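B., you asked whether I could sanity-check this one before it goes into the benchmark set. Here's the sequence:
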Amino acid sequence: MPGMMSASDLANRRNERRAREHIATRAAILEAARRVAAREGARELSLRGVAAEAGFAPAALYSYFSGKDELLLALAAEDLAFIARAMRGAAAGCNGKGKLAAAAGAALSLLRTTETIVAGSAALPASAGTGEAERLFNGRLIAALKVLSEVTGQTSDSREAQCDVLLVAAALSGMALLARTGRLEALGFSADEILGRLDARFSQEHP
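And here's what the prediction gave me:
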């Protein structure tokens, strides 16, 4: 009859609705996890605590995350995407020189105030796996490294250029650790000074 939906159309609609509900619930769990991590520290995060924060039974979380490590990786992946956007935005505001320093500064300000990427990195398996959470984390990490490559003004098609980008990323990670614990200032250095040296050393805009 006109206006009636076929069985396959009804099934497709049900599947689409379930997919939307799954995505929305997963996002709500991640937001709850972020609140718990901000309040208690990412390293102290537990599925039971996140479930209570989100208003779910603990067992319900296993439909979305296999365990604490996968949840931490999902949070870290979100933050890597946020850092990549922040770096690109900071670099876009620079005319000419200083793009690397600006992008690195934006990354550092975020890295020094969040534990999720450190905790998520610690949750990675000792050898590369094939889990969806790990693939997502790796993809977001590569995207952030590509932004760093762009702001240095060099292509990433050579092994040497790729090593340089990894060196910048490693320097930022180390600086974040030192800054978060107050050791950078205790050693007599400022973040701006180190970022300026990074820019002078690795940016192709400098002679």
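One thing to flag: The CA atoms of residues 15 and 21 lie 10 Å apart. Otherwise nothing jumped out at me.
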